Amino acid sequence: MNKNIAINGFGRIGKNFLRVLLENKNNNLQPVAINVGPGVLEHTAYSFKYDTLLGTFSGDVHMEDDYLIVNKHKIKILNILDPKYLPWKDLDIDWVVDASGQFTKRELAQKHLDAGAKNVLITAPAHNEDVTIIPGVNDTMYKPDKHKIVSLGSCTTNALAPMLKVLNKNFGIKNAIFTTIHSYTNSQVLLDIEKKQYRDSRAAALNCIPGTTGASKVIGKVMPELDSKIVGSALRIPVAKVSLLDIVFTAEKEFSVESINQAFKQANNHIIGYSTEPLVSSDYNCDSHSVVLDSLITQTQDGLGKVSGWYDNEWAYCKRLKDFLLGA
């Protein structure tokens, strides 16, 4: 049975997610509507077809009245600011994928349900959601009969949690500190401006900018056994796509570079990749894994271990959104 999908917010995640949905026609996820919110309706086709990071979409893309036509597939385009006025009931929407970043609190996400959607999937860490799911980590926690507002965490959480799961299963984590060395995003600025947070006011493409991340809070939700054991921070760097996660940890059991790498090699699947090649960030552009362990830079020293994993912070995350919806 087909599932009717609506996308609320058509920025980086919204556009990546639509491409992911359309790359394989042999699935039951049907994009029915996109609410561009404050976006410009007339720009929708252009901004989807021509993408600096993803390249030009190989297919016909154009607008007909208020529909986006992609290879003859019609998608209703809306620009409504308040979700309570969206026509989700009339469109029989099974899932709203909220990629706006604006409706992460329960009472705001609830507006989609009040408008007639059956379920909401938030593409960010959320507040008072029914459940947070990180694919490959706590999938069994999802109960479709009771969970109507679901968060899939963040791109960083989807890279971090699977790595922590491998480490904890094999060695028993005592404590860990992580740094996401993260590509810049649209929340940053091109040139210096005035902002309340001084570091956030600096030019993204010209600076390495220390910042915060909420990923450690999400870990406590999906891996309660690690609650309060994990802290982390972010370093935004002048790269447009693909990020690197560094985790430094102590453990209950002894470990070596070889045993750590072996644990990740055995865990290798569509969630966790494993690399023995000397690659750089651009080599992981559009890699579908939530994270790929770089086995060449695993390190140990006097009871400390360090692992590093690459992740496409846009594409891989959208693949997990699709995976979740296919199984929901």
How would you characterize the overall build of this protein?
23% of the residues lie in helices and 27% in strands. It has 2 domains: 3-124, 3-Layer(aba) Sandwich (Rossmann fold); 155-313, Dihydrodipicolinate Reductase, domain 2. It has a 9-stranded mixed beta sheet with strand order 3-4-5-2-1-6-7-9-8, with helices on both faces. Strands 10, 11, 12, 13, 14, 15, 16 and 17 form an 8-stranded mixed beta sheet that branches. The relative contact order is 0.14. The longest helix has 17 residues, at 155-171. It is built from 7 helices and 17 strands. It starts with a strand and ends with a helix. With 328 residues, the chain is α/β, with parallel strands linked by helices.
Number of domains: 2
> What is the straight-line distance between the termini?
12 Å
| Adjacency order of strands in the biggest sheet | 3-4-5-2-1-6-7-9-8
The CATH homologous superfamily of the largest domain: Dihydrodipicolinate Reductase, domain 2
**Top CATH class of the largest domain:** Alpha Beta
Poorly predicted runs of 5 or more residues: none
Give the biggest sheet. Answer: 9 strands, mixed
Rg over alpha carbons: 20 Å
CATH topology group of the largest domain: Dihydrodipicolinate Reductase, domain 2
Number of helices: 7
- The averaged pLDDT comes out at 97
H-E order = EHEHEEEEHEEEHEEHEEHEEEEH
